[in-house]
């Protein structure tokens, strides 16, 4: 997965971001305490290699890797052109002259605020080769001293392809010419231990993730708005998914996507970036991989199911969200989506302190097998993974073989889906449903950080007022799904463009009242049998009443301007 943010712009913003020296010392102490204290009797076997090492070396890092994650954890931001050596008593940096301007603050901290137990050293690598070799020799000597004094190896992280830039190329050439390349090629891989250390998030890390989720909401709002424009267009666009993806990337590059949103005073939107190119799929061609461009050239049919998957990062911390949008769905498709919602509520209730990751996976799968056995074979092989600076921790995932135990303040991308379901209107086609949210694990369950619309009435759209359908649902005890002609009308604006839609082949199915009522009854039975005893409120987003009041204050229509536009659009369609 690759970030689609402009790398030069992002690097420039990183270099401008000052390093918080007090945060660095506090986080370094926390790492060292974990390193020392959990050497024996740990319930996480993955830490064994980390505990056996006398030091840790961090090189330059690609985005979404553990090396980058540990850099950000310690310094508050990624480090460019920098190598780090960490021991239980010291931290040494080999860096470029540009990065040295920021790192020197770690050495020159006032004496009363420094930790005299930890020695911090910054070695500057000049541009000239001779002076650069002396600097690299000094850093290499520090690494070798660890092994000589402790008899232990220095561990490293192997996550992704090596960085190839001038700084790292010079370092690798220096190691080769010194005959020391094996010092790193044979070093223990401590990735699993670092995964355990970084899994539970600090308060600041959680706040950054919450901002990233809010930014994902802005993106999703723009996508929904454009989908409605496409539905209301007389012309059949043949690149619906590609157009939506291009729109998001263009707005992101212009910087306009974040404008108008309400952020807290300490939030700087210029540190927000796309995690990956938005994945928007339709036309019976679906692929859960985030890099997929499946469906990019599909036209919007009269009836359609669209999957939208996107994510943003704020100050390197990622969010992950996906939503399903349904146009003129069949009642059986609605019933399946209702069950997907119930399944997510169930998953959120069991993702809590002490639950095994593999046991969560099996519990979700068992529920599907019991309540809707015909859907079990359509489940994914994983229901998500740990989330932070690294996008998807392979050592912490909701899979059958992951024996890690969930702990409070872990953040997950919880992703549930049913794929390759038979289309009830066209037997030669299939459709998929997907629901992904960023969730924070708590003692009695998880809470959703990506609080975006997902109820059936919020993601389902009908071209004409389905009176018989609404009557059937009211008799069934359900509120009717949102349709063109319903919603909170706002008549202070006008709607541009056409409001009639040419119906394609998929709209020619009969929708009689008896069929709708029968399907609605079946749907009620499915919902009543599958609704879990939810042990947590999935809409709860803070433990403090003051914080809840503040958040609720920010949650009006202004946060979701799409609803106002939808209201005007749907009200106009009612009179067509």
Describe this structure in words.
The protein is of the alpha+beta class and 576 residues long. The chain has two domains: 7-198, Creatinase/prolidase N-terminal domain (Creatine Amidinohydrolase, Chain A, domain 1); 200-574, Alpha-Beta Complex (Creatine Amidinohydrolase). It has 18 helices and 17 strands. It has helices spanning 7-16, 21-37, 48-51, 66-75, 97-107, 129-150, 166-178, 182-185, 191-199, 203-231, 240-254, 331-350, 357-371, 456-459, 467-475, 513-530, 545-554, 561-574, and strands at 55-58, 82-87, 90-95, 119-124, 154-156, 272-274, 279-281, 304-310, 312-314, 317-318, 321-327, 384-387, 391-397, 411-422, 430-441, 446-448, 460-461. The chain has a five-stranded mixed β-sheet with strand order 4-3-2-1-5, sandwiched between helices. The chain has a five-stranded antiparallel β-sheet with strand order 13-12-14-15-16, with helices on one face. The protein has a four-stranded mixed β-sheet with strand order 7-8-11-17. α5 links the parallel β3 and β4. It is elongated, with a radius of gyration of 26 Å. The two termini are 45 Å apart. Mean pLDDT is 77; it is low at 1-6, 290-300 and 467-576.
How is this structure best summarized?
This protein is α+β, with helices and mostly antiparallel strands and 576 residues long. The protein is built from 18 helices and 17 strands. The chain has helices spanning 7-16, 21-37, 48-51, 66-75, 97-107, 129-150, 166-178, 182-185, 191-199, 203-231, 240-254, 331-350, 357-371, 456-459, 467-475, 513-530, 545-554, 561-574; strands at residues 55-58, 82-87, 90-95, 119-124, 154-156, 272-274, 279-281, 304-310, 312-314, 317-318, 321-327, 384-387, 391-397, 411-422, 430-441, 446-448, 460-461.
């Amino acid at each position: 997965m690759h970030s689609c943010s402009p790398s030069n712009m992002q690097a420039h913003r990183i270099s401008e971001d000052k390093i918080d020296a007090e945060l660095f010392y506090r986080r370094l102490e926390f790492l060292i305490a974990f390193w020392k204290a959990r050497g024996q009797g740990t319930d996480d076997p993955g830490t064994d290699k980390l505990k056996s090492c006398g030091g840790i070396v961090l090189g330059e890092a690609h985005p979404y890797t553990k090396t980058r994650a540990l850099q950000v954890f310690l310094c508050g931001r990624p480090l460019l052109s920098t190598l780090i050596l960490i021991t239980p008593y010291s931290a040494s940096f080999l860096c470029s002259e540009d990065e040295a301007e920021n790192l020197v603050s770690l050495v020159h901290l006032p004496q009363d605020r420094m930790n005299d137990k930890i020695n911090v050293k910054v070695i500057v690598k000049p541009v000239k080769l001779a002076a650069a070799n002396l600097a690299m020799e000094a850093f290499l000597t520090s690494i070798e001293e660890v092994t000589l004094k402790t008899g232990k190896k220095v561990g490293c992280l192997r996550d992704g392809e090596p960085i190839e830039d001038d700084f790292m190329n010079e370092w690798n050439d220096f190691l080769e010419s010194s005959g020391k390349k094996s010092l790193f090629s044979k070093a223990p891989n401590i990735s699993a231990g670092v995964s355990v250390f970084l899994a539970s998030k600090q308060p600041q890390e959680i706040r950054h993730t919450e901002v990233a989720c809010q930014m994902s909401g802005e993106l999703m709002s723009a996508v929904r708005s454009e989908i409605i424009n496409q539905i209301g267009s007389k012309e059949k666009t043949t690149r619906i998914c590609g157009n939506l993806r291009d729109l998001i990337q263009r707005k992101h590059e212009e910087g306009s996507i974040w404008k108008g949103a309400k952020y807290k005073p300490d939030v700087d939107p210029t540190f927000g970036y796309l995690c990956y190119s938005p994945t928007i799929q339709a036309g019976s061609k679906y692929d859960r991989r985030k890099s997929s461009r499946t469906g990019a050239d599909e036209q919007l049919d009269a009836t359609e199911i669209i999957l939208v998957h996107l994510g943003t990062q704020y100050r390197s911390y990622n969010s992950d969200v996906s939503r399903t949008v349904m146009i003129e769905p069949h009642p059986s498709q609605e019933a399946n989506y209702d069950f997907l919602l119930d399944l997510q509520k169930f998953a959120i209730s069991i993702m809590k302190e002490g639950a095994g990751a593999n046991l969560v996976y099996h519990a979700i799968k068992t529920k599907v097998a019991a309540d809707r056995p015909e859907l079990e074979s359509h489940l994914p092989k994983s229901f998500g993974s740990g989330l932070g600076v690294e996008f998807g921790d392979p050592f912490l995932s909701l899979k059958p073989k992951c024996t890690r135990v969930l702990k409070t303040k872990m953040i997950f991308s919880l992703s549930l889906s049913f794929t390759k379901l038979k289309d009830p209107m066209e037997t030669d086609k299939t459709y998929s449903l997907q629901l992904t949210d960023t969730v924070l694990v708590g003692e009695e369950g998880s809470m959703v950080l990506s609080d975006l619309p997902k109820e059936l009435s919020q993601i389902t759209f009908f071209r004409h007022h389905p009176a018989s359908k609404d009557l059937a649902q009211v008799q069934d005890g359900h509120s009717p799904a949102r349709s063109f002609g319903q919603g909170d009308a706002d008549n202070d604006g006008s709607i541009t463009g056409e409001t009639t839609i040419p119906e394609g082949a998929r709209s020619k199915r009969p929708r009689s009242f008896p069929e709708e009522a029968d399907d609605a009854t079946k749907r009620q039975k499915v919902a009543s049998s599958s609704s879990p005893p939810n042990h947590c409120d999935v809409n709860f987003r803070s433990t403090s009443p003051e914080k809840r009041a503040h958040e609720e204050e920010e949650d009006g229509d202004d946060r979701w301007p799409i609803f106002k536009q939808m209201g005007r659009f749907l009200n106009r369609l009612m009179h067509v």
